[in-house]
């Protein structure tokens, strides 16, 4: 049975496309016809017709930074419930960080995820650990990762503190064309910290995390990369590709901005909670657990710098850092709360509400940040609205107002600071792997 999407707004930044049109997809999941303007696509008997009445048909959203907790912490999330959350948020694919139990630090772990994700409605990319057990002491098997189709490595949740080990990680990742994703944190500065170090932490009596802990680590890494590019045996290694996860400070954004200007292959992502909230939101909250995360919510000055980085193109992607936790891990004193929040179901709404509606970026730029760029950074195929190409689509209503409610979540966990907030814009459904799933 073919599927016809009629009267849509076709929006695909990869093709510089933003126009009214329609699309027909065959029962094999491949695009048969794309028309623009008012030209109709005639339906045949048995065709499924979806009149989008001006709603947006965009390339499937992709989140390059998620935690689905399986294996080892299935009480928080599973591959199945994480995928349900992704579908609810309009995502057709995600990349999973390796800090599970056990850590995904070998092809065996990669094979486990792939085996147990077969048949799920979204694509799962597996990110391998940088070091064995993410301990920062010995490199994981990068060559074997590459042979299994792994496209990125990260010790997310921690950072390699030993500079020599980090140098080796950069070199080996480059030679196997793996994107190196850095959770930038000087652990000596952050040890025992709960929230941003400042007036609010002092008022609450909570140990602070100095914001300089992030840019110090980024600066070290960028110095290594620049040195390797200049001096390493006349091209004996490939040029590294370095990506900063969940960037959160003005100093970090400026480091990335300057590195890009210097010609380094550097990129970064920001989470919706970091461009939306500040440390004052944590201070004002009655229940503070869902405002505890790493990196911590920072000052308004830092939040504004993140917004400017999105505006001027320094920041390449929006990623959720979807981090499910059970209620008892959040409904507790803030200095005992687990770090992190869920984000797949609110990401698109927060992006449209806080960035598009406020004139910071266009909707096309939002799709670039949520789909086109993450796929490019991860080395995935670009989605194009062309005859014969696989249909991988997200259906978006950018004008729909909705309230974040616990009952609507696909995730097993409920740890979000946005519960009860009214947002504008969300996903109506996805079309992926030959299947239409509408909310």
From TrEMBL:
Its EC number is 3.5.2.3. The keyword Zinc applies. One of its GO terms (biological process) is 'de novo' UMP biosynthetic process. Binds 2 Zn(2+) ions per subunit. GO terms for molecular function: allantoinase activity; dihydroorotase activity; zinc ion binding. Residues 54-249 form the Dihydroorotase catalytic domain. Keywords: Hydrolase, Metal-binding, Pyrimidine biosynthesis, Zinc. It catalyses: (S)-dihydroorotate + H2O = N-carbamoyl-L-aspartate + H(+). InterPro entries: DHOase, DHOase/Allantoinase_Hydrolase, DHOase_cat, Dihydroorotase_CS, Metal-dep_hydrolase_composite, Metal_Hydrolase. The keyword Metal-binding applies. The active site is at residue 321. Substrate binds at residues 67-69, 99, 325, 339-340. Zn(2+) 2 binds at residues 156, 183, 246. Zn(2+) 1 binds at residues 65, 67, 156, 321. Its cofactor is Zn(2+). One of its GO terms (cellular component) is cytoplasm. Pathway: Pyrimidine metabolism; UMP biosynthesis via de novo pathway; (S)-dihydroorotate from bicarbonate: step 3/3. HAMAP family: PyrC_classI_B. Catalyzes the reversible cyclization of carbamoyl aspartate to dihydroorotate. Belongs to the metallo-dependent hydrolases superfamily. DHOase family. Class I DHOase subfamily. This is Dihydroorotase. It comes from Chlorobaculum thiosulfatiphilum. The gene is pyrC.
């Amino acid at each position: 049975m073919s599927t016809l999407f009629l009267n849509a707004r076709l929006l695909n930044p990869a093709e510089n496309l933003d126009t009214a049109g329609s699309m027909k997809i065959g029962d094999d999941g491949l695009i048969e016809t794309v028309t623009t303007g008012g030209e109709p696509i005639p339906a045949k008997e048995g065709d499924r017709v979806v009149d989008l009445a001006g709603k947006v048909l965009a390339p499937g959203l992709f989140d390059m930074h998620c935690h689905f907790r399986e294996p080892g912490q299935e009480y928080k999330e599973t591959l199945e419930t994480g995928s349900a959350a992704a579908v609810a948020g309009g995502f057709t694919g995600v990349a999973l960080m390796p800090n599970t139990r056990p850590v995904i630090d070998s092809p065996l772990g990669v094979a486990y995820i792939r085996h147990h994700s077969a048949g799920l409605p979204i694509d799962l990319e597996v990110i391998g650990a940088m070091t064995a057990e993410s301990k920062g002491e010995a490199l994981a098997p990068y060559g074997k990762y590459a042979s299994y189709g792994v496209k990125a490595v990260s010790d997310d949740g921690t950072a390699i503190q030993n500079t020599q080990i980090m140098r080796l990680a950069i070199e080996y990742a480059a030679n196997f064309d793996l994107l190196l994703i850095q959770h930038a944190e000087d652990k000596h500065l952050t040890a025992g910290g709960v929230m941003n170090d400042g007036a609010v932490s002092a008022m609450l009596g909570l140990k602070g995390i100095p914001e300089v802990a992030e840019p110090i680590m980024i600066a070290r890494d960028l110095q290594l990369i620049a040195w390797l590019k200049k001096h390493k045996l006349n091209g004996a290694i490939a040029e590294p590709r370095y990506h900063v996860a969940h960037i959160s400070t003005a100093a970090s954004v400026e480091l990335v901005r300057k590195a890009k200007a210097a010609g380094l292959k550097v990129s970064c992502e920001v989470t919706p909670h970091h461009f939306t909230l500040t440390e004052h939101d944590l201070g004002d909250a009655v229940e503070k657990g869902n405002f505890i995360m790493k990196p911590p919510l920072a000052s308004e000055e830092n939040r504004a710098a993140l917004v400017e980085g999105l505006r001027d193109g320094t920041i390449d992607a929006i990623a959720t850092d979807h981090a499910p936790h059970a209620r008892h891990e959040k409904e507790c004193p803030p200095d005992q709360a687990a770090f992190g929040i869920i984000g797949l179901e609110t990401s698109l709404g927060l992006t449209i509400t806080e960035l598009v509606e406020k004139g910071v970026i266009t909707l096309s730029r939002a799709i670039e940040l949520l789909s086109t760029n993450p796929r490019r950074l991860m080395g995935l195929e670009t989605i194009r609205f062309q005859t014969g190409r696989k249909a991988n689509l997200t259906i978006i209503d950018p004008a729909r107002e909705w309230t974040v409610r616990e009952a609507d979540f696909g995730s097993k966990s409920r740890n979000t600071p946005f519960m009860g907030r009214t947002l504008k814009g969300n996903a109506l459904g996805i079309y992926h792997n030959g299947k239409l799933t509408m909310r």
